[in-house]
Amino acid sequence: MKSTIIRIGLLALSILAISLLHYLTPLHLHYLHDIFQRFYYLPIILAAIWFGLRGGLICSLAVSIVYAPHILFQWGGGLTLEMEKYLEIVMYNVVGGITGLLSQRERERSIELEKTAHGLEESYNALRLQSERIITIEEQLRRAERLSTLGEMAAVLAHEIRNPLGSIRGTAEILRDDYQPGNPKFEFIEIQIKETDRLNHVVEDFLRMARPQAVEMRRCSLREELEMIVTLTGSDARDRHIKLVLEPFKGDALVRGDGEKLRQAFLNIIMNALQATPTDGNVIISHRQTASGEALYYEICFRDSGPGIDEETVQHIFEPFFTTKADGTGLGLAITKKIIEGHGGTLEVKSGIGAGTEVIVQLPVLAEGQEQ
Fold first, then answer.
1. What CATH number has the domain spanning 218-364?
2. In sequence order, which residues have a C-beta less than 8 Å from that of residue 265 and are 6 or more positions away?
3. The whole model's pTM is what?
4. For a tag site, which of 24, 57, 141, 168 has the least CB within 10 Å?
5. Could you list the residue ranges forming a coiled coil in this record (predicted)?
6. How far is CA 349 from CA 111, 149, 267, 270, 322, in A?
7. How many Å is the maximal CA-CA distance in the chain?
């Protein structure tokens, strides 16, 4: 709006200045008047370019009104002698109309091109989003295919790996009895037993991820489950010199679920937090009740003071076999997410480098009258 006013002001000033030159210049200097009357084309063409057909015609009409008195009163208005000047007025309007029409069409064409470009940009963005969705679906299909393959391998692994592991561990325990603590061979056998247990846990996680397990849904207290897990992991936290805090609950925070599965999920989250937290750090477990529409949820937040996780890693943290630990399997959080979602809840990780990590679990509140 401001620029429009400025342009109109410039046009008015230029027409006024040219007109004053005409009225103040003596008539015998006719060659100067010929030059001044050509100056009128400048504001007419500018008005046509800036404001289109309407601007060009209005400006040429204004020039004609201002210039006509000069012809009629100063030059005497002789029709034959001043025909050139009358024709000049006609040319002002012709030039204003034609230039304005061309400028307006060019502006309309530019607007159409902008709309086309905007439409192409929207189409490009839509295609890009669609391609990203296709890539995501392909990744999910590959993951589903991988899990399907895991299911087929589960029975083989149960027999071909777990049974020999049990034999290896039993044999190692027998051999350990022949040596006293402090003997190098005793330490080697301890390492063998420890690694056998770790490999057995890997196989168990593998089978748990590959095969859906039956879930016994019943009335379950989040307070009791979390208190039990904090008690179990308390000694580990003290050994690491980490402060593990469970904020007090108001009531039992009842949900409908499988207590054993929820304990497994909470244990995975807390152990990850303890492993990520440096000495003299802290892991705080808090809770609150939230609402989403008409549904009520208990939100449990596990917050640690560790180094945090970068954004790229957070995007892949729930993928099976993805891990940042040297001895990790990449199945812990994938199993945890599967358990939480199996209870109708959600699992979210918020983190940043140097900002610690926050794992948020949401589980539906047990409604009154709901099956216990």
1. 3.30.565.10
2. 335, 336, 339, 340, 361
3. 0.49
4. 24
5. none
6. 46, 28, 16, 13, 15
7. 137
